[in-house]
Design brief:
Layout: E1 15-19, E2 40-41, E3 44-45, H1 46-56, E4 61-66, H2 70-81, E5 87-92, H3 99-109, E6 116-120, E7 123-125, H4 130-142, E8 146-154, E9 166-173, E10 178-186, H5 192-195, H6 203-206, E11 211-213, E12 216-224, H7 227-234, H8 241-251, E13 258-264, E14 269-271, H9 275-286, E15 305-308, E16 312-315, E17 319-320, E18 325-326, E19 330-332, E20 337-338, E21 343-345, E22 347-349, E23 354-355, E24 360-362, E25 365-366, E26 371-372, E27 377-379, E28 382-383, E29 388-389, E30 394-395, E31 400-401, E32 406-407, E33 412-413, E34 418-420, H10 438-441, E35 448-449, H11 466-469, H12 485-494, H13 499-503, H14 508-526, H15 530-543, H16 548-560, H17 575-587, H18 593-610, H19 614-630, H20 636-644, H21 646-649, H22 653-661, H23 663-688
Parallel strand pairs: 1-4, 1-6, 4-5, 8-13, 16-19, 17-20, 18-21, 19-22, 20-23, 21-24, 22-25, 23-26, 24-27, 25-28, 26-29, 27-30, 28-31, 29-32, 30-33, 31-34
Antiparallel strand pairs: 2-3, 6-12, 7-14, 8-12, 9-10, 9-11, 10-13, 15-16, 34-35
Protein name: Translation initiation factor eIF2B subunit epsilon
Family: Belongs to the eIF-2B gamma/epsilon subunits family.
Organism: Linnemannia gamsii
Length: about 700
């Protein structure tokens, strides 16, 4: 690709800021030796995809903020700029510890003089930003308090480009395109705060119609005003762009700022924020979901990939033996040699690699200058530059083999191992001597197992460790094991903690019990509309990943407990009065025939549990069953199926006696059903005559 002439214009320059550092350690030990933004993704440095994305958006000036491995980042940026029409500036600060620090540094240097695009150095996207930029600028013209527009991509919960352990819950106003509330959602929740969502009820006064969305991918592409860096400076507790800044702006009564969103659905956008996402985005690139950012577009100067049948991409200088097998979804870099009977499938092979005879590579990522000798097996792992696998080595799934590691002959590396050739406790700038571990890399190997230093990760200490596990390459949720001795010891320690700490350790079921009860009690006491109560309950359901069945068994008793069987009419506490006011809330938790049958069982059990006196329980159950039938919450077939089922005849004495109370209603329903059947028979006879 020949160098392009720089474009000079008198128009306002469109600027972008790239945060090259990830401020986490998910790719260690590989990122101990190079920056994450320089990791090869389908044999192209990751940040190259971000540069191309910004170039398509019409960006003219880019500021790259970096901290770790800044020399390598600067060298790459200098080389890339020669073939780009963008002016790229590298800003180095060794003191950056978070996104907040980078934004405060940006404000201190006064580099930005207009609205700008803020992205991380691991974004891969083929979307155009023309429309979102136009919307943001128009919004700013009308309302100076609108300081940011987030770009969000709609995707199903099981979409491959969604990060497994990290999610987001957005409360949005589709009319004004305003984001009203944001909360990060983890797959596994360890504290009460993780399992609850607290939102200012005044939101409903200004926004009568809102959406709660957890089907959006947030790849952190933002259009920001010049006020954003200054707000970070004014609030030193802002560290994370979403959990701190966005959440802080939306919950502040003093700042008076608003944040908006732009939703896209027919484009590709994702962040390579973990090894799990590295695998997912690599597969998406190979499958051409990111077009035109695909291998045969040759984004990197000097590349010459050809696209072949079966989603195979091969450079011209690759040497393939006649008996090797290259299956589908494979990328092979220049000057790589593949020997006899080697089998490659769903993998990326870098440049200048040597793959021996009878080697099997599946779902793996082999970087540049790697040597894999005869009879090796590599499964769903990453092997970094200059690594060597001697004969007969087996690399099981989920492994990260860092730079210059040698695995000795006939060695089996266990799943999810992380190997490094760096001396323990040192980084790539150290001259410390490496002490290899033969138990890990074999007698002739070079390297050791890598373990994270205690407290080194940037994640919250209270975060459930399972969230990190599910973000690992090739991790299988079914393999999630938590019964370790350390956890058993910590569990015994928790039993002796103060009551306020014990409260944080309650089970998710108990916490859901409390939250539903608190929501209903608040609704009854404050006289909320049913729709408001439904919204709060649905928010709680999504935030806790609960289903409607779990909500029904809590909501139905929660409504019935407010009925006083001895109350007089006009008190507001009789069964009829409570059900007329709140019965439709139960209906919002029932959607199909299976739900109706379950609702009948829950009603029977709830009345028997809440009112130990049979007479009181009957005075609540009978009108409740009739109300649900009259309001079509429980249909005739569901009630009859409930009555005739063995399950309704079991349980406590009170439950069985409640079933008998329903006999008159059952007789009425069966008689009506019989009469309808007779009428249908008469109609058929008349038609036959």
């Amino acid at each position: 690709m020949p160098p392009k002439e720089k474009v000079e214009s008198t128009e306002q320059v469109l600027q972008a800021v790239i945060l090259a550092d990830s401020f986490d350690e998910r790719f260690q030990p590989i990122t101990l030796e190079t920056a994450r933004c320089l990791l090869p993704l389908c044999n192209v440095p990751l940040i190259s995809y971000t540069f191309e994305f910004l170039a398509v958006a019409g960006v003219q000036e880019v500021f790259v903020f970096c901290c770790s491995h800044s020399d390598k980042v600067k060298a790459f940026v200098k080389k890339y700029e020669k073939s780009s029409n963008m002016k790229i500036n590298t800003i180095v600060s060794q003191e950056l510890m978070s996104v907040g620090d980078a934004m405060r540094e940006l404000d201190a240097k006064q580099l930005i003089d207009t609205d700008f695009i803020l992205v991380t150095g691991d974004v891969v996207s083929n979307m155009k930003l023309d429309q979102v930029l136009e919307e943001h600028r128009a919004r700013r013209q009308a309302d100076k308090s609108a300081i940011m527009t987030m770009v969000l991509k709609k995707a199903s919960p099981q979409h491959r480009s969604r990060s497994v352990g990290d999610g987001s819950l957005f409360v949005l106003d589709q009319g004004s395109k305003e984001c009203l509330h944001y909360q990060p959602v983890k797959a596994f929740k360890s504290t009460r705060e993780d399992r609850r969502m607290t939102m200012n009820m005044e939101i409903f006064d200004k926004h009568p119609e809102i959406q709660l969305r957890n089907d959006l991918i947030d790849c952190q592409v933002d259009i920001c005003s010049v006020e954003v860096p200054a707000l970070f400076t004014e609030n030193f507790d802002y560290q994370d762009i979403r959990a701190d800044f966005v959440h802080g702006i939306l919950t502040s009564d003093l700042l008076g700022k608003t944040i908006h969103f732009h939703e896209v659905s027919d484009v590709y956008a994702a962040r390579v924020r973990s090894t799990q996402m590295y695998d997912a985005v690599s597969k998406d690139i190979i499958s051409r979901w990111t077009f035109p950012m695909v291998p045969d577009s040759n984004l990197q100067v000097g590349d010459c990939y050809e696209y072949r049948r079966g989603l195979v991409y091969k450079e011209k200088s690759v040497v393939l033996s006649r008996t090797c097998v290259v299956e589908e979804k494979v990328v092979i870099g220049a000057n790589t040699q593949i020997a006899e009977r080697a089998v490659l499938s769903n993998c990326v092979i870098g440049k200048n690699c040597i793959i021996g005879a009878n080697v099997k590579i599946d779902n793996a990522y082999i970087w540049d200058n790697v040597v894999i000798k005869d009879n090796c097996v590599v499964q769903h792992s990453i092997i970094a530059n200059d690594a060597v696998l001697e004969q007969g080595v087996t690399i099981n799934k989920g492994c990260l083999i860092s730079f210059k590691v040698t695995v000795g002959a006939n060695t089996t590396v266990p799943a999810y191992s992380r190997l490094t050739a760096l001396a323990e406790g040192e980084d790539d700038d150290s001259d410390a001597e490496l002490i290899s571990d033969p138990a890990v890399v074999g007698a002739t190997g070079r390297g050791r197992s890598f373990t994270e230093a205690e407290g080194s990760d940037d994640e919250d200490e209270d975060e459930d460790p399972k969230n990190k596990q599910v973000n690992m390459l090739a991790f299988d949720m079914s393999e999630l094991l938590l019964a370790t001795k350390e956890q058993e010891d910590s569990a015994s320690d928790f039993e002796s903690e103060a009551s306020d700490l014990e409260e944080d350790q309650i089970s998710p079921e108990e916490e859901l019990d409390r939250e539903v009860a608190a929501t209903l009690d608040r609704a009854f006491q404050d006289g909320h509309d049913v729709d408001i109560a439904v919204l709060e309950l649905n928010t709680l359901r999504m935030a806790t990943f609960s289903n409607f069945k779990e909500m029904r068994k809590r909501v139905i008793p929660g409504v019935l407990k407010h009925i006083d069987p001895a109350a007089r009419p006009g008190s507001g506490k009789t069964a009829k009065e409570i059900l007329n006011r709140w019965g439709s809330l139960v209906g919002k938790m029932i959607h199909d025939e299976e739900d109706q049958l379950d609702g009948a069982y829950v009603l029977q059990r709830a009345c028997a549990t809440l009112y130990q006196d049979v007479a009181q329980a009957q005075r609540v159950f009978a009108p409740a069953l009739r109300y649900f039938y009259d309001e079509d919450i429980l249909e005739e077939d569901a009630i009859l199926e409930w009555y005739h089922s063995e399950k309704s005849q079991q349980g406590t004495d009170v439950e069985r006696q409640l079933r008998e109370v329903a006999v008159p209603m059952i007789q009425y329903l069966e008689q009506s059903e019989s009469e309808e059947s007779d009428d249908d028979d008469e109609d058929e006879d008349e038609d036959s005559e």
